[in-house]
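Title: Comparing notes on inverse folding

I've been comparing how different people in this forum approach sequence design from structure. To keep things fair, I'm posting one structure and asking everyone to reply with a full sequence. Here's the target:
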């Protein structure tokens, strides 16, 4: 048998699945962790929490599935996009990772737009405008606000790619996740040397870019032993969570759209050729489908807003035993006409 393991490094937790050759889920495991918000607009996590959760959940599915180590042939990664893991030359994490929903980088977004020669030029180079969630503004924030740490900076990785590094020792990413860094030439599926030059960032900070299905390395001996697997287990490129979810839902050809409501909310559509919204309202990224692209509209506060509402405005309901507060408020909302009488919520 040839089993595979999928690992998703999410914002609230990491989940691993053991899958048989027919695509059936044999075992699954999850481990949760928190988000640190030390200042207004800040959102951070310790990459060590992701790694601990990854080891725990992989070991769990291997044990639950009762499979031989040699029968697990490959491991794929997906995860929260845009987050920044800053490493020094020894591979040591310099500070907590800035997450996709961190909003501290407004000044850096303006700086990127200016250095690029304006919004239109920026979209021409990397297909998207500068937004606080993306990775490039976070790198500039480190340079502008924590210069001593920036001097030590040698590598910048996305969350799932930090897990790849620990699994394989390889510094790599995939095109779908890299698209959300605001440093990728999305049309040509490679790093934008043009924008890197304008921002005075060294390309050596970034890993090798692969297509999602390509093999990026194999498990290190010590890690294979720790996980109950073998060094023959291949680790493939994987994908950012949005592209991976779309692939799983069959959004692999033109004319199909999906809506995903997690902590954030996403509308996602497949594209055979790169297309751009000149106003920057939609993202254009490389798809996890080899040689294809996608566009998506995103709100950073979807189910996250619902959680905020329950925890802050439905406290008694949330504390009541045997009651699902989300089901209760959902039932109340169902009785309200569409449009809520003009009431708007601004996250």
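Reply #1:
Here's my take.
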């Amino acid at each position: 048998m040839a089993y595979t393991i999928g690992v998703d490094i999410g914002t609230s937790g990491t989940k691993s699945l053991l899958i048989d050759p027919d695509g059936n889920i044999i075992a699954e495991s999850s481990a949760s962790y928190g988000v640190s918000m030390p200042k207004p607009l800040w959102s951070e996590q310790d990459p060590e929490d992701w790694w601990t959760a990854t080891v725990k959940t992989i070991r769990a599915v291997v044990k639950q599935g009762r499979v031989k180590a040699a029968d697990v042939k490959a491991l794929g990664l997906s995860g929260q996009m845009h987050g920044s893991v800053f490493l020094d030359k020894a591979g040591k994490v310099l500070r907590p990772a800035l997450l996709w929903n961190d909003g501290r980088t407004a000044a850096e977004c303006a700086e990127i737009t200016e250095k690029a020669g304006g919004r239109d030029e920026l979209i021409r180079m990397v297909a998207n405008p500068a937004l606080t969630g993306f990775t490039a503004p976070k790198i500039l924030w480190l340079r502008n606000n924590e210069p001593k740490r920036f001097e030590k900076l040698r590598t910048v990785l996305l969350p799932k790619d930090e897990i790849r590094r620990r699994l394989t020792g390889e510094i790599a990413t995939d095109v779908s996740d890299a698209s959300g860094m605001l440093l990728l030439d999305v049309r040509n599926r490679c790093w934008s040397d043009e924008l890197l030059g304008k921002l005075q960032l060294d390309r050596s900070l970034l890993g090798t870019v692969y297509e999602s299905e390509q093999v990026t390395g194999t498990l290190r001996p010590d890690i294979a032993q720790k996980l109950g697997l073998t060094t023959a287990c291949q680790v493939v490129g994987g994908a950012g969570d949005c592209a991976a979810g779309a692939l799983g839902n069959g959004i692999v050809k033109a004319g199909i759209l999906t809506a995903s409501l997690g902590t954030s909310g996403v509308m996602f559509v497949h594209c055979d050729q790169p297309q751009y919204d000149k106003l920057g309202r939609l993202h254009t990224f490389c798809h996890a489908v080899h040689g294809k692209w996608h566009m998506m509209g995103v709100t950073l506060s979807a189910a996250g807003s619902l959680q905020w509402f329950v925890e802050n405005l439905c406290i008694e309901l949330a504390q009541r035993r045997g009651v699902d507060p989300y089901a209760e408020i959902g039932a109340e909302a169902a009785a309200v006409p569409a449009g809520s009488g003009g009431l708007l919520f601004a996250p």
